[in-house]
Automatic annotation (TrEMBL):
Superkingdom field: Bacteria
Protein name: 2-hydroxyacid dehydrogenase
Stretches assigned to the D-isomer specific 2-hydroxyacid dehydrogenase NAD-binding domain: 109-296
One function term, GO molecular function aspect: D-lactate dehydrogenase (NAD+) activity
D-isomer specific 2-hydroxyacid dehydrogenase catalytic domain ranges (all copies): 9-327
A matching Pfam family: 2-Hacid_dh
Family: Belongs to the D-isomer specific 2-hydroxyacid dehydrogenase family.
Length: 330
């Protein structure tokens, strides 16, 4: 099946081509999918996208007119796709629900350690021959309270790892996950979670309900000096509000792999250009902030599974079989 693969990086090309045992005709396109680039998918029944492609109503109308019947996102989250518009245009949307949740949970722990124990700063110092410890003090995680917002697959694995560190784990979710409770996790309201947690980690999807779930009000309510970790979606956090809370010391540290305005920045090398986004520039200027470019999923195991599932979905469409990973209909 002819498939246009947008936002294709070198690793996407290699890994998707390796998974493509069925011989689908893959058209790799480095650009993001936008109304201007949708034309590049002309004649492709399947379109494969990633988190910063803009699969809105306008793009879906263009794709439908060009004969697209499937949008397959190489991600779990699908907040970048207008599922209702896709349905109206008769385009099925699939995602990858089952790929190594360990990849993201382990990375969240890594970010937490990096920001708490200043590992990135220390590494920069030693490269310059500076072995001074001033400014590098962190705190023991053992005995602290970790709040997990969204206790699904990733959140529960993150909670299990933190519980192994000797932390008390509390959670907030719309649904109670027995696996979270089995490891000693206790469900509480979001306000109480913010008030009692030394570390808060976000693992819920971005929806209308969760947009800016961390905002000026919630940050004011949070335990003073606590650390916020976000490996989920940038839109969960009001970034300007975190800058305000970092300035006053209300927020003790911030570790993010996702950023609200990441679409125009992430997954590209901008080191030789002037970055005009003042918010990200302000964020990276704080000594107690660490920012990575949406790489939590980036392990051999996770990417391999993402590519295999994506190919399986395309094959299922071609054969007229049910689509296992179809996103909930709007
Ligand atoms: P999941 O569906 O297993 O878990 C999500 C949990 O969030 C569910 O338990 C759900 O009930 C809960 N939730 C939904 N609305 C909520 C609300 N209003 N308040 C509290 N909890 C709520 O998903 P997952 O596989 O654990 O993935 C979680 C998120 O991680 C994804 O939605 C995606 O945004 C993000 N993610 C990021 C990366 C990355 O590379 N940084 C990779 C994969 C996934």
């Amino acid at each position: 099946m002819k498939t246009a693969v947008f936002s294709a990086r070198r690793y996407d090309k290699t890994m998707l081509a390796n998974a493509n045992q069925e011989g689908h005709e893959l058209r790799f396109i480095e650009d993001r999918l936008t109304p201007a680039t949708a034309v590049l998918a002309t004649g492709c029944e399947a379109v494969c996208v990633f988190v910063n492609d803009s699969v809105d109503a306008e793009v879906l109308a263009l794709l439908a007119a060009q004969g697209t019947r499937l949008v397959a996102t190489r991600s779990t989250g699908y907040n970048h796709i207008d599922a209702a518009a896709a349905e109206q245009h008769g385009i099925a949307v699939v995602r990858v629900t089952d790929y190594s949740p360990h990849s993201v949970a382990e990375f969240a722990v890594g970010l937490l350690l990096a920001v708490n124990r200043k590992i990135a700063r220390a590494s920069v110092r030693t490269r310059e021959g500076n072995f001074d410890l001033d400014g590098l003090m962190g705190f023991d995680l053992h005995g602290k309270t970790v709040g997990v917002i969204g206790t699904g697959k990733i959140g529960t694995i993150f909670a299990r790892i933190m519980s192994g560190f000797g932390c008390t784990v509390v959670g907030h979710d719309k649904f109670h996950n027995p696996a979270f409770e089995a490891l000693g996790g206790r469900y509480i309201g979001i306000d109480e979670l913010l008030e009692c947690s030394d570390v808060v980690s976000l693992h819920c999807p971005l929806t209308e309900e969760t947009h800016h779930i961390v905002n000026a009000d919630s940050l004011a309510r949070a335990k003073r000096g606590s650390i916020l970790v976000n490996t989920s979606r940038g839109g969960l956090v009001d970034t300007e509000a975190t800058i305000g809370a970092l300035k006053t010391g209300q927020l003790g540290g911030l570790a993010i792999d996702v950023y609200e305005q990441e679409a125009s920045l992430f997954f590209q090398d901008l080191s030789s250009t002037i970055i005009t986004d003042d918010v990200i520039q302000r964020l990276v200027s704080f000594p107690n902030v660490i920012v990575t470019g949406h790489q939590a999923f980036f392990t051999v195991e996770a990417i391999g599974q993402i590519m295999r599932t994506t190919i399986e979905s395309i094959t299922a469409l071609e054969r007229g079989e049910p689509l296992r990973d179809r996103v909930p209909r709007a």
